[in-house]
Amino acid sequence: MTTSTAASAPDAPASPQATAVRYLTEHGYEQTTTSSLADAIGMSRSTFFRRFGSKEDVVFADHDLALSQLQEQLDTSDLTASETIARGTLEVSRVLTRDPVTARMRAQLLRSTPLLRERELVITHRYERMFQRYLARVAAPGTPDWGPIAVAAAVVAVHNAALRRWMKLGDDHAFGGLTRELTALLAKFAPWFGGEAGASRVVVAAFEAGASPDDVLRAITDQLG
Amino acid sequence: MTTSTAASAPDAPASPQATAVRYLTEHGYEQTTTSSLADAIGMSRSTFFRRFGSKEDVVFADHDLALSQLQEQLDTSDLTASETIARGTLEVSRVLTRDPVTARMRAQLLRSTPLLRERELVITHRYERMFQRYLARVAAPGTPDWGPIAVAAAVVAVHNAALRRWMKLGDDHAFGGLTRELTALLAKFAPWFGGEAGASRVVVAAFEAGASPDDVLRAITDQLG
DNA sequence: AGTATGCCTGAGACTCAGTCTCAAATCAAG
DNA sequence: CTTGATTTGAGACTGAGTCTCAGGCATACT
């Protein structure tokens, strides 16, 4: 009945991933051979590779779960794009920091291992592709091809920054800001993704004293997409 | 007198990188051992690793040049951020496609080799960090931390999309669009990077009938950064 | 010329990640 | 208890990347 996920029972046997992260952090990533790592988490070298694929992937095992949950959420959400993305990223963060001790240990491991930071970029890109497909699907007609591309990249980058912030500051301080940031970001691309044309949209205008009609017209056009 | 860069003399000996890319494309990346690759470009295995560091890096050797030129350009440009970035990315594209034959061959190699696509993500991230630092430097006061992060990621993503487009379509068709796209992208983040604060700034506001004071205040705050 | 100095190359041994094969073990029924 | 399927472990094997050492090959010095 015990799942292999997070801290359910107080002193349940730690998951292999958590044990691996701790071992790698304490002994150094490059210095650790796969044999000793497999020993440390109580399985043979063969089984280690069968289960985790590689020494790098054992560190990022959580992302598989986070990614599949995000996909589910993007597929079924009927909220606005802005809200869907804000909730989706928040859910991802929740999954990745579910076991705070391991999460912080992994963060420290990444900080001291350039090789793993590079691997993280690759993992992260899977989120970007996921958001990109979602945004392309829900984009308003007339949205150019580069819209979803640009926004997906920006969303993931902001999310990563929030995750890094979380390592330093407390929990909610970091993620509360994330939602506001993402909302502000998506708002800049209204009406492609933000509020549907009309509806509950709020646009603010202030005309510089000397603005020419052309300036005004161009600014309005920008605001309307 | 002959440089080792691009197609200067008609039948000058091809650069080691170009030869390597051709060999890998024709024989398959995974199937090629470093020994045979080193043979193909006329050097020993030892020298190969000394010069290129790894089998992966020989494919992306051009990026070193592109990155240093971009850095130079970002450091010295006194144009607006929007123009600087548009010109910078265009220059990068120019460097990367300077030898069109090799560039297309590399593209084909990437298409058939997931491992190299992952490596490309890592290389690409160096551009992102470069743009991010630049944008943070030139950002208007009051720009939030996530501004440069989001925009840098978006710029690089759009640039990559343009490079992929170039592989399919003709030269200028792809890159002409790129400049327009980047300008439109940066415009969405005015006045953080676009127009300097004040000056020729025009902000447009339209209040939805039922907007609450909170809505208005928040929207105004967003517009002002 | 001859010689000394410093750099680049090649050869080969070595480590270790990741793959593959096969045999033992574990488990689920019947 | 037996049968059959899945999981595990042991060990051989491939190939990337590192390291050391010995031999060119140049330039500089006498």
Automatic annotation (TrEMBL), chains A, B:
<keyword id="KW-0238">DNA-binding</keyword>
<dbReference type="InterPro" id="IPR009057">
    <property type="entry name" value="Homeodomain-like_sf"/>
</dbReference>
<dbReference type="InterPro" id="IPR041347">
    <property type="entry name" value="MftR_C"/>
</dbReference>
<dbReference type="Pfam" id="PF17754">
    <property type="entry name" value="TetR_C_14"/>
</dbReference>
<dbReference type="InterPro" id="IPR050109">
    <property type="entry name" value="HTH-type_TetR-like_transc_reg"/>
</dbReference>
<dbReference type="Pfam" id="PF00440">
    <property type="entry name" value="TetR_N"/>
</dbReference>
<protein>
    <submittedName>
        <fullName>TetR/AcrR family transcriptional regulator</fullName>
    </submittedName>
</protein>
<feature type="domain" description="HTH tetR-type">
    <location>
        <begin position="10"/>
        <end position="70"/>
    </location>
</feature>
<feature type="DNA-binding region" description="H-T-H motif">
    <location>
        <begin position="33"/>
        <end position="52"/>
    </location>
</feature>
<dbReference type="InterPro" id="IPR001647">
    <property type="entry name" value="HTH_TetR"/>
</dbReference>
